[in-house]
């Protein structure tokens, strides 16, 4: 599904990704871990197409097509979802209305009509039940006064509704309490299927107490320097990152 080869990228002439390779197949959950400043968020942003970065080398293929020249919206329409792509507060626009608009925009980009209201409601009902999201939440104004957990709930709801091929969840280190971690983990566990793939980026092992990844990768200094199964996350929890840095010397 996703194939990244020799990705090199910089920002303001500072090199951040230094030849990164990653392959993700449908049905897989990958965790990307690594110390602060390693380039994890940069990688997520570049896959999603954020324009602050300069890709100087390498390729990003989604289902065999190079997406590295596509605009962020086009990548989203092709099934790439990045959490917190829409972190803005929009007073007066509810969680539900926002996602309805996003879905219909995606359909429009593919030359499809709006989703019939009846189908949309059915989908909203099914997904919110699956994720145990109550109706009151769905009618709240987008991100307005949301707690950390509510922001996560909204993100996971967006992911559920948009049904991306590839979801990237960048769990930045701050403000993730156990409730928020559980919301993310339950969402990923319920939404993963043989047809989609999830990349979970985290600085902390504890998220992976709830999501069992098929693969764990360590990103260090702009490259994936070690890959393994879920047990690698436990090893990192116990030993930190220094032993990996030493292995590299
Ligand atoms: P991580 O998510 O692994 O903590 P980041 O991808 O956020 O790492 O950052 C990698 C490196 O790139 C860091 O040294 C960071 O300071 C730098 N960096 C990231 N974004 C920017 C930016 N917008 N401007 C300047 N430097 C940046
Ligand atoms: Mg960071
Ligand atoms: Mg980060």
The CATH architecture name reads 3-Layer(aba) Sandwich
**Global shape:** globular
Helix content: 25-40%
Which ligands does the model contain, each kind named once?
adenosine-5'-diphosphate, magnesium ion
Content of β-strand? 25-35%
Indicate the structural class. Answer: alpha/beta
CATH homolog superfamily = P-loop containing nucleotide triphosphate hydrolases
Q: Please tell me the total number of domains.
A: 1
Strand order of the largest sheet: 6-9-10-3-11-12
Poorly predicted spans:
none
Largest pleated sheet: 6 strands, mixed
Which CATH class applies here? Alpha Beta
- Rg for CA atoms: 18 Å
How many helices does DSSP assign? 9
| CATH topology type | Rossmann fold
**Residue-averaged pLDDT:** 91
Total strands: the figure is: 12
Q: What are the secondary-structure elements, in order, as H or E?
A: EEEHEEHEEHHHEHEHEEEHH
End-to-end distance, in Å? 33 Å
InterPro entries: AAA+_ATPase (IPR003593), ABC_transporter-like_ATP-bd (IPR003439), FeS-cluster_ATPase_SufC (IPR010230), P-loop_NTPase (IPR027417)
Family: Belongs to the ABC transporter superfamily. Ycf16 family.
Domain ABC transporter: 2-246
Organism: Polaribacter marinaquae
